[in-house]
Every structure is written in structure tokens, then in C-alpha cells.
Design a protein that fits this description.
20% strand; globular
């Protein structure tokens, strides 16, 4: 029998953002209503070719969570000053504009695959900063 969870959250492993993500989800009235998957880079970690070995693990986990936790929506929460974004950026200058493009690209790739696999489910992509600013993408 599925539990009454309604969301899954994909976020980054960065310790600076754990409480920020938790507080954001509580403000959304999701306390106790989501399953949680953390991986370096969040959407970057499950879409960037540099981290290809990780991709399938996320999709298998999401599929399982949908089945056993009655998931209706995926929240994807990336963050600013992201180490995974810096790795993907390579040796190029890393600035706010480059980082934003990396996050946008990861969200776009993730949304496309998600909508194809789960057309009836919702997805929300967000970018949080160290000062708690949350941007929707």
C-alpha cells in the first residue's frame, strides 16, 4: 500500500544548503510529505556527461519512489556556488552567467526526460542561493 507522500526532492549534497532546502520545503507545507534524493550537483549530477555513471541510479530511484510513495511531483533544487557546476565548466572562467547557463541546461535536459517518462507528473526546478534567494526555472 503506497504511503501518503506526494513529492520527491532532488537536491545537492552540499552541506551549506541542507537547512536551506529543508526550510524551503517546510514553507511549501511539505514536511513529512516527500522522499529525498541527494547527489552532487542535483540536476547537474543526473544530466551532465561528466557524471554519466550516476544518471541511471537517479532514474531507478525516482521510479521506485513513484511506485511506493505515491509521488505526484518532483522538486529539483540546484544551488549557486555549485562545485559540480564548476567541474562541468572545466577550465573556463566560472562566473554567475556561466553557472546560470549550466543550471539552465541541466534543468532543460532533466525536464525533457522527466516529461517523456512521466507525462502525468509535475516537475518544478529551482535554484537557491547562499542568501536564500530562490529562482524558478
Amino acid at each position: 500500500m503506497p504511503t501518503k507522500y506526494k513529492a520527491m526532492v532532488l537536491s545537492c549534497i552540499d552541506p551549506r544548503f541542507q537547512s536551506k532546502v529543508f526550510n524551503f520545503l517546510n514553507k511549501k507545507n511539505l514536511k513529512g510529505k516527500y522522499s529525498y534524493f541527494t547527489i552532487a550537483g542535483a540536476a547537474i549530477g543526473v544530466t551532465a556527461p561528466k557524471f554519466k555513471k550516476w544518471h541511471n541510479t537517479f532514474w531507478e530511484n525516482l521510479n521506485t519512489s513513484i511506485k511506493i510513495h505515491n509521488i505526484k511531483k518532483l522538486f529539483v533544487i540546484n544551488h549557486r556556488d555549485c562545485g559540480a557546476a564548476k567541474i562541468v565548466n572545466g577550465k573556463k572562467e566560472f562566473n554567475n552567467q556561466n553557472e546560470t547557463l549550466i543550471h539552465q541546461s541541466s534543468f532543460k535536459k532533466l525536464k525533457k526526460k522527466f516529461k517523456k517518462k512521466y507525462p502525468k507528473l509535475k516537475i518544478e526546478t529551482l535554484l537557491i542561493s547562499l542568501n536564500n534567494n530562490v529562482e524558478k526555472f
